[in-house]
Fold this sequence. Notes:
Number of helices of chain A: 11
Shape of chain A: globular
Structural class of chain A: alpha/beta
Number of strands of chain A: 14
Largest sheet of chain B: none
Number of domains of chain B: 1
Largest interface: A-B, 34 and 32 residues
Distance between the termini of chain B: 59 Å
Distance between the termini of chain A: 39 Å
Bound molecules: adenosine-5'-triphosphate, magnesium ion
Oligomer: heterodimer
Helix content of chain A: 25-40%
Radius of gyration of chain B: 27 Å
Radius of gyration of chain A: 22 Å
Number of helices of chain B: 14
Helix content of chain B: over 70%
Amino acid sequence: MQLTLDRLTKQYGDKTALDRIDAVFRPGIYGLLGANGAGKTTLMRLVCDILKPTSGEVAFNGTNIRDLGERYRSVIGYLPQDFGYYPNFTAMNFLLYMASLKGLNAGYAKKKSLELLETFGLFAVKDKKIKTFSGGMKRRLGIAQTLLNNPQILILDEPTAGLDPKERVKFRSLLRSFAEDKIVILSTHIVTDVEYIADEILVIKGGTLLKKGAESTILQEIAGKVWECRAAGQEAERLETRFAVCSRKRENGEAVLRIVSDEKPCAAAVSAAPCLEDLYLYYFQREV
Amino acid sequence: MRNQDRYLKKILGTYAVAPAGEANMQKTISAGEQLLMQNPPQELRWYRRIVNQFRYISPLLWLSQLLAVGLCMLLIHRMGNDADMTAVLSAISFIVALLGVIGFPEVCKSFSCQMWELEQSCKYNLRQITAIRLSIIGTIDLIVLLTITLFTSLQTKLPAWEMALYLFVPFNLACIVSFFAASLARNRNSALPLFPAGFGFAFLMLLCINRFSLYQSISIPVWLILCFGTFVILIWKTAQFIKGMDEGGLTVCN
Ligand SMILES: Nc1ncnc2c1ncn2[C@@H]1O[C@H](COP(=O)(O)OP(=O)(O)OP(=O)(O)O)[C@@H](O)[C@H]1O
Ligand SMILES: [Mg+2]
């Protein structure tokens, strides 16, 4: 099973949201990392056959998904970044409706829906109106919906937004157990999520793919560029204005700064092991 | 083929197989069930798809359509008691035009409720769903319209086809206006502009018919051409609307 993006480009009017993306996905979990407006949602919509690419193509096992049509859409599950529901839908109604669109028969749909409601801790509220749900509950319902047809390709746009830490941990382990032999693509702003779940990371900036690879490989990029230095008062302020500071804490009256920079920020700086958050800052700090 | 079947059955019948244990049978069944749960067949017959969409159309729509029919019947009944025929006919046209408008919030609800993205990613995507919804609502509108036409023509002693002209033209025009309003509405993710546009248009019709006594001033051949023309435009708009879905809701919006 293989999903290939071939010079995938999407323009909205004269604005290029995605610019010639090339990538190959094989079974595994992929994390999309990028700032607001980088093009993550656009990429996912193209992969889900929701939007038509301006040029280039997405191919599943070598065939363009626009040609596969229904056959392709029946093997995917998609969680949009934002979604609504028809007024008066209960959680159960919502799942049954989605199941009917996915072409599942009523008997199976009912069984699977109950099973999923149980898995996502929504069984007790299955007959409550969705409009009474909290943001996190809605999110979980959205994730549950993607799994109805046991998809081979799972695409989740910010699945962990709005989930509390406990649910997040639960979601991660669920995804792990589900993802075997499947292609899972997820986007998030929560860097630690990607760090824990993803086998491979894709960094998107301004519609182009900057990096793709396992965490350790892409961290090589900034090896030796992460520094920790202790500074007091004025010196700390000077460093903060000049460099990308990832974190700052106080220790016995001194500030300890974690800095990502090509050059050594100050004489007392010591090199530190890079993490994904540093990488994110390295790429995206300079534009704010 | 049949013969072969029978032949095979006969041969198989001569073999005796020891009955399987209850536990073994259960094991096989549950293994099969598990396999089915993992690879659910994803295929629904066309009539099931229609029934599925039908179930999710708001009952309010059916109610308001019933109301429209009831009102028309009442008006038709009044016509017998020598009320002003043009006034009654134009009132019926007004109701019929509204009939065309009230179906649209249902058709566009994927956008107004922000379900379009989810629906578009499913096997039976937005295009199919919209086509099914349009045909359900359209068919029912058609039945309602034909009923009203029949009753009116019985009451007025005008031929049914002439009556149909008088009613279908306002209905078609209202639908065309609604389609335009709908593409505006999709931009804003709400069905709000639909109603003012539709109601305003229907009301304008009402005024025009009364003010200029359209039934007399426009001759039958012109009504015929109008009816034909509006049908063509309506069908073209409908096809465009459904085709637009396949481009992805967003591309339509932009
Ligand atoms: N319908 C649209 N019309 C015009 N421009 C759009 C449209 N949708 C997205 N864009 C533009 O395309 C770019 C990419 O948007 P996209 O939604 O893919 O970003 P994103 O990475 O998902 O951001 P976020 O993290 O905020 O969800 C943005 O600059 C956005 O302004
Ligand atoms: Mg997004």
